[in-house]
Write a structure and sequence with these properties.
Helices cover 71% and strands 9% of the residues. The protein folds into 2 domains: 181 residues, no CATH class; 93 residues, Alpha-Beta Plaits, CATH 3.30.70.3040.
Amino acid sequence: MRAEYVIGEAATNLRRNVLLVLGAILAVFVSLFMTYMALVVNEVARNSAERWQEGISIIAWLDDADLADHTLITNEVASWPEVSRAVYVGKAESWQEFQTMFADNPALVETVDPSSLPASVRVELADNETHQAIVSKLVSIPLVDEVVEASDAVEDTLEASRLLNTGGIVLGVALGLSAVVMISNTVRMAIYARREEIGIMKLVGASNWFVRTPFLLEGLIEGLIGGGLAVLAGWFGYRWFISNLDLGIIDTDVPQSFLVSRGLIVLAFGAFAGAVGSLVGLRRYLQESK
C-alpha cells in the first residue's frame, strides 16, 4: 500500500467531516487535559507530603550520666539503618534552646533552673514509616528517661500522603479510560457517517487492512492533535496559574522534567487511543461486510 494513498485518504476524510473531527479532537483534549492536570496535581500533593514529613524527629530525653555514656547512646542510635541522623543536645544547649523558645515570657525563664533541663538525642528518620519501631527501640535503652514524638501528627501526615497519591492515580486511570471510551465513540460516529464508502471499497475487493489503514491514520492524527493541545494547555495552566499560587504549606513547584515526561506519556496515549478507537469503530462494519 502506497504511503501517498494512505495519507491522501486520511486527509480527505479529515476535510470531509470537519465537525466530527473537531468533536473527536475536543473529546481527546478534554479527557487528556483532565488526565494531565490530575498527574500534575498528584505530583504537587506528593511533593507537599514529602515536605511536611521533612524534619519530623523523635526526642529521647536522657537521665543524668557521664558525657561518655550519652555519647555511646548517640552513636548507637546513629548506627541504626532506619535513622538518618542522631544529634546529641546537652544541658547547656537545652537551656539556650529553652531561652529562645520562651523569649517572650521572661518570668517563666527566670523560674527554671538550667541544670533541671535534661540532655537529649534528637533523631531524624530515613523513613518516617519506621517511627514506631524506633520509639520502641529507644524506650528499651536504660539511660533513656522518656521518648517524645508527634505520633498522631506523623501518622496523619503519612496517611494524607498515601491518600493523595492513591487518589491521584485512581483519578488519572479513570480519566484515561474515559478518554478511550470517548475517542472510540466519536471515531465510530465518523465511520458510521462513511459506512457507504466502506461498503463500496469492500465490494471492489479491498482487503480489511486496505480499508482500515486510512481510518487508523485519521484516528492517530486526531489523538495526537487532541493530546498535544491537552499537554500544551496543561503546561500553560500550571505555569500561569498553579505555580503562581501562594498556598502556604502546599509546595506547588513541579520539576520541568516531570512536566515533559508526563506530557510525552499523555501525547503517546492520545495517539494510541485514537488508533484503538478507529480500529474498534471499524471492526463492526468490516465484520458485517464479509
